[in-house]
Design goal:
alpha/beta; 3 domains; D-Maltodextrin-Binding Protein, domain 2; nine-stranded mixed sheet; two-stranded parallel sheet; Arc Repressor Mutant, subunit A
């Protein structure tokens, strides 16, 4: 049921070469040209800006976006029919690395599986990848600690995680309970992934607390496990969700005067989801559940 012209277009956008596109799709270069011109004729548009090295027009961007969705939905349709014949289904759930701990809290998975009682694939992804996978229909829904575009996605707040300063339990700060500005200025700073909520909320809170980090060595990781190892290896100061800090025996929580930071955890799904009825039913139960 796929439109081969759309596959040609998506490949051409990626390859930026008619020759390479033809080679990858095992068709002739004139066939690639014909597919593009056929799409332009059908929709009465120009897909690429003239002389701009395959830069898409606004209409071209829309066609590519919906083309990706249509191809992925075609794949999903084939999988759904195949699964129905085997009487199996698969739930695709994406989570950001730092918010993954929310999935383990208070039997959240039990609530989810009461509505999706079949096989599951749960994958840790960056927010950007999650949003892309949701738009393209590769994920049913996601649990994230980053803000989302409410023009494309629906969802609600599962709860909130408090962010706390932490240090290596057996390092130079083992007898110290409170972080000072001088300590932050003169020691390595370990944070979560730069574009994810935990890091952003930390930096905003420090900025609001008039803490300058312009000359501080910073280390970022999208893995809480590696964050804990970095805190130990660099004997520095880290900032992470209190819930995460409790998971690692090598680090301890500290205090910081007048510092307050937290990040909301969201349940999100695409507004174009085919399974909105089940999702809304699940959300009703999740609102009763609410992360403690």
């Amino acid at each position: 049921m796929e439109d081969t012209r759309l596959m040609t277009l998506l490949t051409l956008v990626k390859q930026k070469s008619y020759t390479n596109t033809a080679k990858q799709l095992f068709i002739t270069q004139p066939a690639v040209t014909h597919h593009i011109k056929s799409l332009e004729h059908e929709f009465d548009i120009k897909i690429f800006k003239p002389g701009r090295d395959f830069e898409l027009t606004k209409q071209g961007e829309i066609l590519v976006e919906y083309g990706r969705r249509m191809i992925n939905q075609s794949v999903q349709l084939s999988e759904a029919i195949s699964n129905s014949m085997r009487q199996t289904k698969v739930l695709h759930l994406g989570v950001t690395s730092a918010s993954a701990i929310a999935v383990t809290k208070n039997n959240l998975l039990s609530v989810i599986f009461s509505h999706y009682n079949y096989e599951a694939k749960i994958t840790v992804l960056s927010p950007e990848k999650i949003f892309s996978e949701l738009r393209e229909g590769r994920l049913d829904f996601a649990i994230i600690d980053s803000n989302y575009d409410d023009n494309l996605f629906d969802g609600f707040i599962l709860g909130s995680f408090v962010i706390v300063p932490v240090c290596y339990k057996e390092g130079k700060f083992k007898e110290i309970r409170r972080v000072t500005r001088e300590m932050l200025k003169n020691n390595p700073l370990i944070l979560g992934a730069e574009k994810e909520g935990m890091c952003k909320a930390t930096l905003n809170a420090l900025k609001n607390n008039n803490v300058s980090l312009s000359h501080v060595s910073q280390y970022n990781s999208n893995s809480p496990f590696l964050m804990a190892k970095l805190i130990e290896a660099k004997d520095g100061i880290g900032f992470m969700y209190e819930e995460l800090a409790l998971e690692y025996a090598n680090i301890k929580k500290m205090d910081f005067l007048n510092y307050k930071a937290s990040q909301d955890i969201y349940f999100v799904y695409s507004q174009d989801s085919f399974d909105v009825a089940t999702l809304k039913s699940l959300i009703k139960d999740l609102k009763k559940w609410k992360m403690a």
